[in-house]
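TA notes. Do not distribute before section.
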Amino acid sequence: MGTLTPQLRRKQKEFLMLKAVTKKIEKRLLAHSSDLVSGIVELLEQARRYSARAVNSIMTATYWEVGRRIVEQEQLKNKRAEYGEQIVTRLADELTRRFGRGFAKSNIYQMRGFFLSYPNIFQTASGKSSKGKLGESTGLQELAQKFPLSWSHYVELMGVRNEHGRKFYEAESLRGGWTVRQLERQINSQFYERTALSRNKEAMLIKGSSPRPEDRMTAEEEIKSPYVLEFLGLKDEYSESDLEEALIRHLEAFLLELGGDFTFVARQKRLRIDDRWFRVDLVFFHRRLRSLLLIDLKIGEFSYEDAGQMHMYLNYAQENWTHSDENPPVGLILCAKKSANVVKYALDNLPNKIMAAEYLTALPKENLLEQELEKTQRMIEMRGKQ
């Protein structure tokens, strides 16, 4: 090839310049597009958080008002404690019938206790209390403004018996923007007592306001709070991970295929002990044994904590889920670890060894369940690779 003519050389130079400009424009467009996406993602996350907080504030105001009405009714009738028990029982039955979960007696007592913990939220500057009755001087939205924290926060705060400690944790939650996890951690670590005893209180408060990674809550977690779901009448049927969900569903089908003795009762059945929520992965009823079978799946090694938690579930099930003509429930702990699957039956709550032996004869063999766990895990892993 010969040398380029001045005209072609000029054209080539123009082409290269145009190409460089085009690349710059593309780069800017991509940057703007990335900024647009990240900005909208942030906006939607923020909107979801605001939605959760809005629901929470209305819910908190509603529960306070329910508690106020119960206490007012008790005072109006001026009857013995038995009358208050009757009110709560009737309310729990009627509200559960109309609205479903979330209105057990323990929850109603909690609403009553919430009002008694915060009876003077309409206290004026002069020290006199304004009316504060729903429909008179205030409404739900105005009432909601009196409770800047979520209902989950107030549930934790009500567990603090020391009034000064409760006010301290409430103030620090507001000042530091604590999530409910951070509040729970600080209460459990006796942050109030440690700060009171500390010589350098300012340093303690600065250190205490620093969140940890485990304290963070996503918008999805806030929206899927059991309290919010119950208040909105929504179902709570999600597992902690896809692997757990797949294993639970497969084990459910496997046990039902073993014969007609197993009757499915519930998946992810929730129970509440004090102010904490727990989930039992699977609940079956064994017709021949006339007993509930509680199954808890753990992704990892078996630990003594797992056994202790199962016995807590069994005690709760014995008291709240077992009918008078049924035998005590039995627990099954499945630990699905890659290196070794472990299966443990919790039979200590049974009245005698003969019954325990009968249960072991009727229930699936441990090695059979271990083999099924291993087979299921392999199947799930192969499916994921396809």
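Switch to the second chain here.
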Amino acid sequence: MSGRRAAPPAPADVTAMLRAVIDPELGDNIVDLGMAGEVRVDADGRVTIPVKLTIRGCPLRAQIKKDVESRVAAHPGVTGVTIEWGEMTADERTATMTKARWNARQQAGDTRVPLGARVLAIASGKGGVGKSSVTVNLAAAIAAEGRVVGVLDADIWGFSIPRMLGMSDRLEARRVGDAGKPSIVPNERRVGAGLLKVVSTGMLVEDEGTALMWRGLMLTKAVEQFLNDVHWGDLDYLLIDMPPGTGDVQMGLARMLPRTDLVIVTTPAVSAQKVAIRAADMARRSFLRVAGVIENMSSFTCDHGGEYALFGEGGGAALAAEVGAELLGRIPIERAVAHGGDEGQPVALSGTGAAAVEFRRIARAIIDSTPTTADMGGCSARAEDAIPLTLRR
């Protein structure tokens, strides 16, 4: 049994996986937009997927390729993925653009998280690896680059985001615009030219010491409410601080936001790395992409310059290699990180030590790997130009 390879997926299963690949500019999945053609699956697990772009030179090609390959390759029975690129005919382009415009007018989507926002779930196999600290510092560092960053504290039992960001105000619900019912409005904190928008159950309870006696269904419903009933407004990124492990919240998020990318946090210890693999396995089973691995508490440097691997070494690199993802960075142990969390001032904002520098570098790498509106280069605008005016109405 140990050497037996999993059976290849059926073409219909591959098509279902492709529904999680969103064209960021058109705001829908490539199957419903008519971009994905008839899937072919060979007996040896090789999958061939025809993909038609609205415009041959569309800059989104690289992002779509990356998403298609990562989603499909996550299936254990897939041995390789080949994309056959093509360009839509005038009629196909017209149908696609018409559908995209109709969706924008008529459908709010499954959640109120903007389709243009990159969603990153910060996950771990177990507690105690500094996942919330990583979430807060990455969010702050990305916001400091002038971005609007949502922070969703989905660690319902172990909420700590409000304290780490120094945000103690209670959440409020009010009508926004011409909405028929009130929406939860995130609490906000300016970070330089950027903005943090934060939602946490810690902003609903009386004080930080209140215990939430919630079970699985209630946890999932809470996250669903945060995604559906929060008026997030404009967002460039949404960082979700996940509870440790692979339980109800993780499965619910995969169902509600299939475009989520996972960033897995581990410590250098081999034992922690082995547990963190479970988070990657959950992502694979849910067809989520692992965007990278962050090794936290990688080493400690004393005042005399000596470096000590207090929790072992190599766990982050080993995990990244095993799950086929990038090692985004290694955060050293520094007293300033914990102190900044206790004081509500993330070290990534004003810190000068190695940890602060590394948080900022990772944040910059995340930004650089995210397609921007300029990168999209007006794919849909150029596609619109190719449609006769009489067909645009």
